[in-house]
Design a protein that fits this description.
It is a single chain. It contains one helix and five strands. It has one domain (about 1-70). Helices cover about 10% and strands about 35% of the residues. The protein has about 80 residues and is mostly beta strands. It has one helix at about 60-70, and strands at about 1-5, 10-15, 25-30, 35-40, 55. The mean pLDDT is about 90.
């Protein structure tokens, strides 16, 4: 499932993989420098207690790998206009 929402005033793509037994929520948003950030939340949308679910910066190589996989439409990159 793919959903577009807003976090901290920025567009965020929220994905839930129904094959994931933990039903974690993966959120992606554009970083302020034009890259990509990701964080993982519990199934109820709350942060993990041990790490606080921080936003992690994708490296340029990870972003380029996602862009290389793009076909006609990409569920993360296209909604974020990357």
């Amino acid at each position: 499932m793919n959903m577009l929402t807003e976090t901290d005033g920025r567009k965020t793509v929220q994905l839930v993989d129904h094959n994931d037994n933990a039903r974690r929520i993966f959120q992606y948003r554009r970083s302020l420098d034009g890259g990509l950030e990701r964080r993982i939340l519990r199934h109820d949308g709350k942060p993990y207690e041990d790490s606080g679910s921080p936003w992690e910066q994708y490296s340029i190589h990870e972003l380029l790998a996602l862009q290389a996989q793009r076909g006609q439409w990409h569920p993360i990159l296209d909604p974020l206009e990357l």
